[in-house]
Each structure stands twice: as C-alpha cells, then as structure tokens.
Amino acid sequence: MPSDAQQIAAIKSQTLAVLAELTANPKPTYYIDGQTVAWNEYLVRLRATVDWCDRKLAGERPFEIHSQGTT
Q1: Contact, 19 vs 46, CB < 8 A?
Q2: Is 35 in a helix, a strand, or coil?
Q3: What is residue 67's predicted lDDT score, i.e. its pLDDT?
Q4: Distance separating alpha carbons of residues 33 and 51, to the nearest angstrom
Q5: Helix and strand tally (H, E) in the chain?
Q6: How far is CA 52 from CA 26, 34, 45, in A?
Q7: 0.85 exceeded by the pTM?
Q8: Which of 47, 65, 57, 52 is nearest to 9 (CA)?
Q9: Tens digit of each residue's pLDDT (9 = 90 or more) over 27-47
Q10: What is the pLDDT along the chain (71 residues), one digit of tens a residue?
C-alpha cells in the first residue's frame, strides 16, 4: 500500500498532467441549459490542488533549523 506521501505525489502528478492538457488546448467558458462551464475556474482549482500537494509534501520532508546563539 502506498504511503501518504506517495499518494499525494500521485495526485500532484495527475493534476499537473490535466493542467498541461488544458493549457495546451484552452477552452472558452460557455453556458448550456442555464449552467455555466467555466474552464478558468477549473484551472484555478487545479492550481490550488497542486499548491496543497506541495504544502503537504513539504511537511513530509526532514528539515534543519540553523541558529546561532549570542550573549
């Protein structure tokens, strides 16, 4: 079973693939039967998903804090 970090990395990879496809072949916002299909809002949500994945993955990585004490 994949770890949380592996699953988040997979979500990020899939989302980036969708983003690449949509930006390569942009579509206009349109209205059909009283409903709006807003591709620009979809792109914003996809980018937010990538940002969320980046934040979660950053929390999984080890880190160091460099500090210096003075008197």
Answers
A1: yes
A2: strand
A3: 85
A4: 33
A5: 2, 2
A6: 23, 32, 10
A7: no
A8: 57
A9: 888 999 999 989 999 999 999
A10: 888 889 999 999 999 999 999 999 988 889 999 999 899 999 999 999 999 999 999 887 676 778 888 87
Read off the tokens for 31: 């209205």
Query: Residue 38 is encoded by which pair of tokens?
Result: 């807003």
Q: In terms of residues, how long is the chain? A: 71
Write out the H or E segment, with its range, that includes residue 32: strand 30-32
- At 26, which amino acid appears? P
Task: Give the count of beta carbons closer than 10 Å to the beta carbon of residue 53.
Answer: 20
CB 44 within 8 A of CB 15: no
